[in-house]
Amino acid sequence: MGIGNYLMGDEGIGVHIANLLEQEQLPEGVDVLDGGTGGFYLLEYFEMYDHVILVDATLDGNETGTIRLIKPRFAQDFPPAMSTHDIGLKDLVSALQVLGKMPEIDLFVVSIASVQQQGIELTPEIESIVPHLIDEIKSLLVKIGLPEIEPHLIT
Questions:
Q1: Residue 15: how many CB atoms within 10 A of its CB?
Q2: Torsion, Cα of 129, 26, 139, 14 (10° steps)
């Protein structure tokens, strides 16, 4: 599930990744969703799956383009500066805990420099890590137990 605002440049990296993954040949049982800035509207998708992989931007002070994989189990496990929809994701996780429907979550966070950028284009720094991030997601799917997937081809 790609999270982010597509109209705010690098902040929309999750949505860009979801759109690219929809074009890939993924194993049966893997669904791709552009979660946008859906917040509580995404609750039903978290309830439907035992395992959810998220991709989102973060303002964490790391070098722009840094990719980290974290396994948040509680709202406080999310990075402290989760872009413009911080409250929505944290509240969503809290709601899932209260409902007793918390899936296993893997969260790929991509460090960005700013959320002030307007437009649908990614900066060159973020664009350059896209193939690597897609390959990391595919590797995680294999670790979860799904069949191996062809690496992303840089075009």
A1: 26
A2: 40
The number of domains in the chain is 1
The answer as to whether 129 is a domain residue is yes
- Predicted structure pTM score: 0.87
Domain enclosing residue 114, as ranges:
2-144
**Residues contacting residue 153 through CB under 8 Å, at least 6 positions apart:** 131
Q: What six digits make up the tokens of 128?
A: 């350059």
Find the angle CA(101)-CA(105)-CA(110) to the nearest 5 degrees: 145
Tell whether 9 is covered by a domain. Answer: yes
Identity at 123, one-letter amino acid code: T
Q: What is the residue-averaged pLDDT of the chain?
A: 85
The answer to whether residue 154 sits within a structural domain is no
Is residue 153 one of the residues assigned to a domain?
Answer: no
Q: Read off the tokens for 155.
A: 């075009």
How far apart, in whole angstroms, are the C-alpha atoms of residue 93 and residue 40? 9
